[in-house]
Design goal:
The chain is 59% helix and 0% strand. It has 102 residues and is mainly alpha-helical. Helix 2 runs antiparallel to helix 3.
């Protein structure tokens, strides 16, 4: 039998790590600039507060402070839903937008 020759394996040790470190990595894409003061954000906030307060009142009962806060949040939800419905009605042509008065 003839002696077998063994091949040397090239491992990804220090040499491969040095090459990877030398290559510049691509920069992460910039995050989009979010506009927080918009109607969809207000609707989501008021809906979340309403559901959270409602479930909290069901679970723990009510006090005068909780009732006042709940009424304020319910008003916020009412304003946001009314603005959304008005915009929807204007887009469908059911009602016409009015000119601003000076």
């Amino acid at each position: 039998m003839s002696p077998r020759r063994r091949r040397r394996r090239i491992r990804g040790g220090a040499e491969a790590g040095g090459e990877a470190a030398a290559k510049p990595q691509a920069a992460a894409p910039a995050l989009p600039e979010w506009k927080w003061r918009t109607m969809p954000v207000f609707i989501a906030l008021s809906f979340g507060l309403f559901v959270g307060l409602y479930l909290g009142m069901v679970a723990t009962g009510t006090g005068i402070a909780a009732t006042v806060i709940f009424l304020i949040v319910a008003g916020m939800l009412g304003i946001s839903v009314s603005r959304y419905v008005m915009r929807l009605l204007m887009q469908r042509g059911i009602i016409k937008p009015q000119a601003r008065r000076r």
